Amino acid sequence: MPLKIAMIGAGSIGFTRRLMHDILAIPELTDTQFALMDISQRNLDMVTQLCRRDIEANQLPASVSATTSQREAIADSDYIICMIRQGGLAAFQTDIDIPLKYGVDQCVGDTLCAGGIMYAQRTIPALLSICKDIREVAKPDALFLNYSNPMAMNVWACTTYGGVNTIGLCHGVQGAHWQITRCVEQWAKREGLIDQDVKLHRREVDVVASGINHQTWFVKAQWRGIDLIPKMLELFEGHDEYPTTEKVRIDVLRRFGYYSTESNGHLSEYLPWYRKRTDEINQWIDLSSWINGETGGYLRVCTEGRNWFENDFPNWMSETPPVISGEKRSEEHGSYIIEALETGRTYRGHFNLPNNGQIPNLPEGCIIETPGYVDKNGINMPVIGDLPLACAATCSASVRVQQMGMEAAVHGDVTLLKQAMLHDPLIGAVCNPEEVWQMADEMLVAQAQWLPQYADAIPAAQQRLQAAEASGKRVQLRQTEGAARLHTKSVEEMAEQAAQARANASAADKGKMTKEPAH
Hints:
Helix content is 48%, strand content 12%. The chain is built from 21 helices and 12 strands. The protein has helices at residues 13-24, 41-57, 70-74, 88-101, 113-137, 151-162, 172-190, 232-237, 242-245, 247-256, 264-268, 278-284, 297-318, 333-343, 389-411, 414-423, 425-430, 433-446, 458-471, 491-494, 498-506, and strands spanning 4-8, 33-37, 63-67, 79-82, 143-146, 166-168, 206-212, 215-223, 226-227, 347-354, 367-375, 378-380. The strands form 3 sheets. It has a 6-stranded parallel sheet with strand order 3-2-1-4-5-6, sandwiched between helices. Strands 7-8-9 form a 3-stranded antiparallel sheet. A hairpin with a 2-residue loop joins strand 8 (215-223) and strand 9. Helix 18 packs across helix 19 (458-471).
């Protein structure tokens, strides 16, 4: 029987179409039945039209159904892929704009810090609803593949409270692996170890990354038997671009001895050192790409991508459909995991799953990102061992914030939510406790429509804000757009570079470091 794969949040054009193409590039899975689901009928209709056209043009036996009913999509599914953005861009805007008033300047705001913690409050109830439907109507032992951020908090909630076999997937390790490969390539050419016209593939550089999502560390790396870890700082400082675009990551590498998987902008907002003083932020970032640290950069490119897709959709339908083939398969883990489970072909990747001793010096049960192997027998995660102490310290601080944020989201606990924010590394470096308390109340009130678990608590949050205002005890707010915020382009402005706008709209990974060819 053909597989049935439910895609929840299928109005996400980048992920939905990319993952469908990846799956259909597997010879044994060309007859897969895709059940697309989204709460936006308009977005769902547009993506469904594109997917059906692509399948027909490639003369594949696959099928696509579309529904706004989550339960209907999940019914009898073998796999469920989640890529929801709960609250959409409207909620995302408040994740960035409200913390700015309190001095918290974020680049992405979807993993930790104020934006990431609130994102979890919106997303976890929706994920637990998906888990309920999976338990009740999906195939027995169906696998839930989650792409939605904040990854660690989301997967932690699903594995602890959802009762569903869940795995979290991210492309951060692949992107950083390519960076290391490019550094090795340039160094090897300087040393005369390879010819000047040679291009290395990341498969030629063996790595092990270990940690938590977006704070994973390359603890092993080698090329041609050469241990690259002692040379990593030299490799990155010797690259022709990265000393400009990856200042935070290279500074952490200099002080920790290990390179982080996550982008300069992401990493800068998870640590207490690089974004706490407005006048210093620009020393650590680079505006040639949003992912290098731009204030609200991810919000900007997501907004531009969505607006362009909605405006340009007729042109997407009239263009020549892409060829679906193995040569064009992306590096997203999802299709390779499904392929391995269904065919037995072994796949090695880095996955997000509960810590069952794989990293002994991180808390048991927290969600870690480490290497895993997949085949007919399932997903197997070997023991990696202790993280280096500085890396473990950084991850441990984040893990406890994640734990409090996750529990707050599950139980609608305002005190725990505020304590999570209080202990967040960047928030704690910028805000005093009263600022944290008022910022959390303001975000609860602003996002009330997406926070059903806080329905009884939000009126009290509103009253506290009003009382503080009336008594003159309201904390001092900043009037700022952020240290490095760029203009969000209109559709007319994007039309001047239409190809670039279309690439942004269609990308599953909107970063600039993961666009290397998969083959």
